[in-house]
Structure formats: structure tokens, C-alpha cells
Design goal:
The structure is a homodimer. By secondary structure, chain A is of the alpha+beta class. At the A-B interface, β1, β3, α4 and β5 of A face β1, β3, α4, β5 and α5 of B. β5 of chain A pairs antiparallel with β5 of chain B. Chain A binds a DNA duplex through α3.
DNA sequence: ATAATAACGATAATCATTATTATTTAATGA
DNA sequence: TCATTAAATAATAATGATTATCGTTATTAT
């Protein structure tokens, strides 16, 4: 009936659900296995559109390509400086902690917080043993 | 004995102190006024070195050049969605709160946190009254 | 069905950043 | 001091990620 999105876009969405915080290139490589004629530009175009529409989160890291996250729920990211993996905090961060944080920010800046982008950097358990 | 830096690097450091979260290009343009022969590559090289040495913070945002912050003390940024102003929390965020955050992140992800990038979005006091 | 609109694939262009290289400046030390 | 070595520079080429263009194809509306 109503095919809301193109076949390419649906495959990109499926790839996002399968892969873990992929880059555009990783999405491209994944989709290309079953759909070789897709173009990298199409992947970028759709990812950018989806990010603008709020269907996907675009994450930016220094000296690294952007990554995309289909989980648009409230959560933070922790990046390992050793292996580069990105971990989700999901909703395991105590909500009461975030509330306190918002209050502290409002007191310090006057901003009543509506959204947060929090990226933590450090070493994962695996990399800590080898450093 | 204190380490001596090149004239170029000292000018870059001075620019960082003057400008507010500048990009490399903005540092370049500022230094160039009084020191026209400096090269953009020199700016990038020094900024990267300083970031690696922990003398400067490198901030990354989607679809925008990296920004550099000479305030390496623990602080966050809060952006107003109304007027666009950016507020620093400086060190007014309770350290004990950040420690708790780090612990929660490590428990959730395994990452032992070394650095955080926290950007808050919301409405400042002025804009809240007019919205 | 036909016209209008949107999305596509291929590829060129752009932008930020890093690497190269020849040269200059600073440090070392006999 | 003067020569030697090391480090940093300016200029510029190269790279990598992302966006823009453009002719074509697919989808939607009349």
C-alpha cells in the first residue's frame, strides 16, 4: 500500500538496527552486500535526512567519521580511547543523577535544560588490561 | 625550569585565551593579523600537540569544524535554543556529582572515564520569560 | 497515461585536517 | 665561538569525510 520510504532508505534503516553505531561507510558496506547498486551518496543523503527528522542520532568525534544511532531515546555514549568502540549507557544512568545535573546547570548558567549531549571518554575494561 | 615554546605557539596560546572556543581557522585568522607569515598547518600542528598534551580541549560537533578550548578545567557548555548564547558552567558543577556520573558510566559501560564532553540545550532565563 | 515531483547512482567538488618537504630556527657541545 | 644535530616552520600536496551536481529513474498526482 503506502510505501513511505524508498527501498534504499529501508535497507539503510535495517542496517542501522543491525550495526552498532556505524559510520556512513559501514552502513554502505552492509547494505551493499544485498544491494550492490546503492551509492555512498545515497547513504549520506538518507542518514542526513533522517537525522534532521529526528529518526536517528548523529554523533561526532574528533578525528573520526560521524556515527549514527537509531536509538533516539535519552542515553549517553562512552567511547574507548584504545579500541574506539562506543558504548551506550542506555537508561542505566540514574535519572535522579541527571535531574541533579540539570539543576546544577540551571543554577550555574540560567539554562533550563531540555536536552543533553554527553560523551564520556576513557578506557574500556579490555583495553585497561593491555595498557 | 619552564619549557620554552616557539613564537608561533605562544601566539596561538594567546589567541586561545582571547577567542571563545575558536576553530583552528579562527585562531589562524587572529594570529595572522600580527604575524602574517604563520601557516594554517602550524596552527593545526600546535593545537593537536597541545590537545595531546592536555593543555587544550578539542571539541567536536556534527557538520562543523572542531573547536578548541584553553580552559582545561572541568566545565560544560549550555546553549540557549532561543538566543543562541553559549554559557560556561565553569567549575560550578559539583565535583561530587561528576564523580557519581563517572561511576555510573563505568558501571553501565565498563569505561573508566578520563574526559567528558557535556553540552546542554535549553532556554536561558531571558528567553523563558519571552516564550 | 502523462506530467510533476522526488529520489537515485555516479561522480565531481568542497571542506577540514594531516602529511610531506625543503628550509629555517633553536639547542648542544667540542 | 662555530659546527653539528634536532626541532619547528611555511608552503603546499594529499587524504578522508561529506556534500553538491546532474542526468536518469522511480514514484505520485492530475
Amino acid at each position: 500500500m503506502s510505501k513511505r520510504f524508498s527501498a534504499q532508505r529501508e535497507r539503510i534503516q535495517a542496517a542501522l538496527a543491525t550495526l552498532d553505531h556505524p559510520t556512513a561507510a559501514q552502513v554502505y558496506d552492509h547494505v551493499r552486500i544485498a544491494y550492490p547498486q546503492i551509492s555512498l551518496g545515497t547513504v549520506y543523503r538518507n542518514l542526513s535526512t533522517m537525522a534532521a527528522e529526528g529518526q536517528v542520532l548523529r554523533l561526532s568525534f574528533p578525528s573520526a567519521p560521524d556515527r549514527f544511532d537509531c536509538n533516539t531515546a535519552e542515553h549517553c555514549h562512552a567511547a574507548c580511547q584504545g579500541c574506539g568502540r562506543i558504548f551506550d549507557t542506555d537508561d542505566t544512568l540514574p535519572a535522579q543523577l541527571l535531574t541533579q545535573l540539570d539543576a546544577a546547570v540551571e543554577q550555574a548558567t540560567g539554562i533550563r535544560v531540555e536536552a543533553r549531549v554527553m560523551l564520556f571518554r576513557g578506557w574500556c575494561a579490555d583495553c585497561r588490561t593491555t595498557h
